[in-house]
Write a structure and sequence with these properties.
mainly alpha, two-stranded antiparallel sheet, 2 strands, 3% strand
Length: 116
Amino acid sequence: MVIGGTGIGESGAQFVSHMGIVSKLHCKIWQKDFVKLPTDIIDTIFRDLELLFRWDRTAHTDKEILMHMSSMHRTWRGVLKKRNIVDRNKTNRSHQSMPYRKGRKSHYQLKDDFVS
């Protein structure tokens, strides 16, 4: 059972997990909203989900599932974007170097030297 996008019980958690796998399998990274997907892709998604799980398919349940999958997909895209930014920042920091050339000085003296 899925309530408010959270899997309740053993089968609910498995369903939400499998829903994420199916969404990554059938949709491109640039896809923003699952509700606007072509009907053939939506039918394929539901077919894959129904192989393991059975539920009464109505327009309301389809809409709820697609909305939840859109939310999961947006979260996944955000995580990938943050990971790419972190990797880019790591490589940029690795190119920056400022060797220390002032000898034995306290942090306060160094701060004053860099300011002036």
